[in-house]
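Need tokens for this chain, all 167 residues.
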Amino acid sequence: MIASSQRLIVTLLGRAAAPKGFYTATKAMKGLNIPKSTFYDMVERGQIKKIIPPNRSDGFYLKVDIDRMAKAQELFLLQYATEPPVFEKAEEEDIKGLYDVCLSLWGTRGTHRYDLRLARFKKNPDIFYVLKYAVVTSPGWLDGLFEPIHRRKEVGDKGFEPLTYCV
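Here are the structure tokens for all 167 residues:
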């Protein structure tokens, strides 16, 4: 009942909530941290693809595209960071980033849930460490790093570029 009344309100206002996998213009602008005029200029130039459902005038923006652009923007800014990489004990605000990195590398089947990681961190704050201002530049260079020692490959420094990303 609540969902149908919410849909009625959305319909009366003429705006639809973004379907799964999409952002509204407002959320896309916020995710890219750009002003409205810049956002719509990028849409007009085709740098950001607007997808308009049938019988609608409002469009939506692919979440994967916006997230990829936001990550590229962050990497661009961080590559000129003047601070050296730092390996340190994780703080509570780092746990979400650790979860996101593991999720992107191993998916849901190889990654403990965020709430479990956070609970473990709160129980023992000395178990997680982070390397800040470093980025993986070559796919697969971490392969084998977390395998059992008898199956572990030599990782080396291929694919590692310092001073470009904060985890």
